[in-house]
Amino acid sequence: MNEYLIVGLKTVLFLIIILVIIRIMGKRELGELNVFDIIISFMISELFSNAISNPNSSIFLAIFPIIIIFLVQVSISFVVLKFQKIRSLIESEPTIIINNGKIDYKEMKKQRYNTSDLLLQVREKGIEDLNDINYAILEINGSLSIFTKKDSIYKYPFPIIADGSIDKNICKKLKLNDTFIDKELKGKNYKIDDIFLAFLGINNHLVFFVKE
């Protein structure tokens, strides 16, 4: 009887701990979890499972590694938020499958994304003609985001500036230099640190979203 009571109390305690950790880690749908988050979820699940199944195991010894994992996750989340290069190493990134109306077959092959997958997700969006698509982006959760030519308000679907940092790779693709960006910022009396997001509009001017 004592063993059943201990297992029951551990189960309730660990459930509360998991709920607290998930709330602190932030609200995210399961499909939006990156590889690092999934690994952490598996580790926490395994540690708690072993602790619950063994009534004689120490609760502290079960919680201690969870705390370490949690602190590591929060620290890495903070780092990837501030540094784009580190973020790209840890997290997967969305991939452009259709770029400016043209299918990127090399990128599809690289992502192991076949024609059937593409056509299925295009049909699910209610689009009959691939020629109507301006950009199609394979998201990290496997879904396909589609921007049609008639509805596109940006010349490129990814931001030129994010969290006050200029994405040099995108600027290179779009042939944008620092002089252009400085001119756009000065035209709005903005500083780079003021910008949360900035996209290149179809009128060849930057569309800014300013930090509150």
What does this 3D model show about the protein?
By secondary structure, the chain is of the alpha+beta class. The chain has three domains: 88 residues, no CATH class; 54 residues, CRO Repressor, CATH 3.30.240.20; 50 residues, 2-Layer Sandwich (CRO Repressor). 50% of the residues lie in helices and 16% in strands. It has eight helices and eight strands. The strands form two sheets. The chain has a four-stranded antiparallel sheet with strand order 2-1-3-4. It has a four-stranded antiparallel sheet with strand order 6-5-7-8, with no helix packed on it. Helix 1 runs antiparallel to helix 2, helix 2 packs antiparallel against helix 3 and helix 3 packs across helix 4. The longest helix has 24 residues. It starts with a helix and ends with a strand. The model has no long low-confidence stretch (mean pLDDT 82).
Q: What's the N-to-C terminus distance?
A: 57 Å
Rg, nearest Å = 23 Å
The average pLDDT value, as a whole number, equals: 82
- As laid out across the biggest beta sheet, the strand order is 2-1-3-4
Described by strand count, sense and barrel closure, the largest sheet is:
4 strands, antiparallel
The assigned structural class equals alpha+beta
Order of helices and strands: HHHHEEHHEEEEHHEE
Total helices: the number is 8
Q: How many separate domains make up the residues?
A: 3
Kindly estimate the percentage of residues that lie in beta strands according to DSSP. Answer: 15-25%
Query: Roughly how much helix do the residues carry, as a percent range?
Result: 40-55%
Total beta strand runs: 8
**How would the global form be characterised?**
extended
Poorly predicted runs = none
